[in-house]
Write a structure and sequence with these properties.
heterodimer; A: Alpha-Beta Plaits; Calcium-transporting ATPase, cytoplasmic transduction domain A; 5 domains; 7-stranded mixed beta sheet; 6-stranded antiparallel beta sheet; 27 strands; disordered C terminus; B: mainly alpha; 2 helices
Amino acid sequence: MSAGSGMVPAAPADTGKDGAAARGDGSLITTDLAVGGMTCAACVARVEKRLNRIAGVTCGVNLATGRARVVHPAGVPVADLLEAVRRAGYTADRITDTEDAPEPPPTGCRDEDCLKVVLTAVLALPVLLVSMIPALQFRNWQWICFLLATPVALWGAEVFHRRALRALRHATATMDTLVSLGVAASYLWSCYALFLGTAGTPGMVMPFSLSTDGAHDHVYLEATVGIPLFVLCGRLMEDRVRRRTGSALHALAELVVKDVTVLDDGPPGEPPAERRVPIGQLVPGQRFLVRPGERVATDGVVVSGSAALDLSLLTGESAPREVGPGDRVTGGTLDAGGSLVVRATEVGADTRLGRITRLVWEAQAGKARVQRLADRVAGVFVPLVLALAASVLGFWLGAGASAQGAVTTAVAVLVVACPCALGLATPTALLAATGRGAQFGVLFKGPEVLERLRAVDTVVLDKTGTLTSGRMRLLDTVTVDGRPASAVLRLAAAVEQLSEHPVGRAIAAAVPPAERVSGAVSEFTAMAGTGVRGTVGGHTLCVRRLSPDARLPGVLREAGDRADAAGRTAVLVEIDGAAVAVLTLGDTLRPGSAELVARLRALGVEVMMLTGDGPGAARAVADELGIDQVRHSASPEDKAEVVAQLQATGRVPAVVGDGVNDAAALAGCELGMAVGTGTDVAIGAASVTLMRTDALAVADALELAKRAMGTIGSNLTWAFTYNILLIPIAAAGMLNPMIAAVAMSGSSLLVVGNSLRLRSWRPAGRPGTRVP
Amino acid sequence: MDAEQRLRSSVAYGKPIGFVLVLGALCALFYVVGRAAGPVSPELRPGWHYPRDEISHSAEHAR
């Protein structure tokens, strides 16, 4: 294998319209190819080897998705890549529409494949029954079985012979070589025994045996039909299961709206005209209509109307979100009630749905380190098995076994040793895990992220936007005697509803609109940097920042000091010039923050809080959540420095953040997790994007990674154990080739079935979460 | 370019032939090993069964 093999190209920085993604330096291009005809890990190794031979090319091939991601110099034409794959004996096509992520193949099997399996089964089953049950062996049964087995050996197993010959032309051997040789050897031996030996004698009876039978002139027609039948059945089932593990892309593809109702401005005084257009024709700035039951066509801002949007398919959150004028909406979300007029802000691949789809596609197209190892092992496995079968044949011939016994033993070795379980062990588990993560709002940038995530022993959490919502909320109201808090608050909210300041909005939001003081606010004045003033209900109200030298009643002074110590914001309310109340405002914890800390500790992970806020605010949140390790007043450089220090002490930190100030730490750490509501810079620097609004997604990502790597471990253990145990048994002549075929197919199905269990994974404490 | 093409096709044909020869050599080598180690007792050889007359004799004896 060339030096570059085994390297998996990183996700492209930017994707061009033609499906080739141009790197930032402009000299390298990423091209995705659909590779057909790959059946096992040995095929993967072969395609990689061929592509990596081209100067400057590195590639990663994924068996489960049937795709190759090739990073090549701009000077290397795609035609050369396609030719290289074809030279390796496989079909290749360029994926020209990765913009919206490739559409995975349908989950059902192809009709011709199903028909082939059915016809093969119809021909093979009588042969299997009659050959294995002596009581059914009528006079000249062996000749009838020969007639039935011939089309199976030639037509049913044709795909194996064709691929084996193609591989041979390219000086290689694959799993198909093993199957083809097994079928050919057992069929030719049966022909020899029937036509030149004594097996064709009328009235011949053949006993059933689990092991090879070399005592009599034996026909091995049950192996001739059994091997292709079981392998074809196994592959068909594998194919179905493999496609199901990649269903996350299907689910995302279904969210894309095909048509949209655009609103065109008509003559003045007339309502806008509605026009139905394909989604591709929608441009940013246009207004479009969303009716109840429809999906929002693209990302935008609500111009008018109100509705409850169901975000469950996008973020895994089950509660609908109410939106109204000015709110941002995401394309792909379902309008559960109410009509909206939305102004499009992003379209196509720039939308949030487009970015999510691309992240899932990137994650599933990549290849993990453990998978590369398995592929390399499988690549040398087939030639070794062929060498082993030849050695076994020679040994038994020399050791006095009959030619029939020796040949059958070699055939059993060929069939049982196929490394297809080895090839499927890792990609199917990663595919299922990344897809399942996406369904719960956890997007991994690549399969290697899952490997790194498992090793994480320290989670560094940003405060604002990660543990807290980053939005001001009224936390406490303290009034002087004789002034009911609710009455003061209603007056303050009435004035503050005209304010644009976050503090003002938080105070206004604390009183429901129905409870606000009726009547207009007059003489409203916003005092820059200090507060607002206005007249409402005949009273002059002033809501302003609390200054340290203000003369206040004791109870208000104490409330102000408490807020100051806790790093919160205190504002003073004056009615007709008299100080009557202190309102304490502060950031609020995101849902699930406390549970997140508890779950991370339960996973054996240390928790640390890192924030740019001052000591008071940092300590208040840390105390509320029970976090001991806190670093406050940290600049972006400080955050990166803290991560570097942790790494220097041997720890494996993961950083969770949302802002531009977290980007350096996110990029520098072992593993960065960005909150999906955060900035694009943070998301770009992170390896995991959390699309949910609750903080628990962090723990979910860690748990899923541990579970996925556990599944991969058990898959690989099984695949290796299966081969290590059964090859010696087959070499000792204790395994009938037909039983070997059943064992080989069963092993692959077991591995794929084990991976499929990841699709039923649920985050702890979320029993009711949607399962698509 | 032609020479390179010829070299490539020679290598392409030579490789499978070489591999088949290696397999043949292995088969021959292990045949010799089998001869040297053998003959292996009949019970241990692949596909060995009790002769049919022995089975029927044992069955009659048991009756």
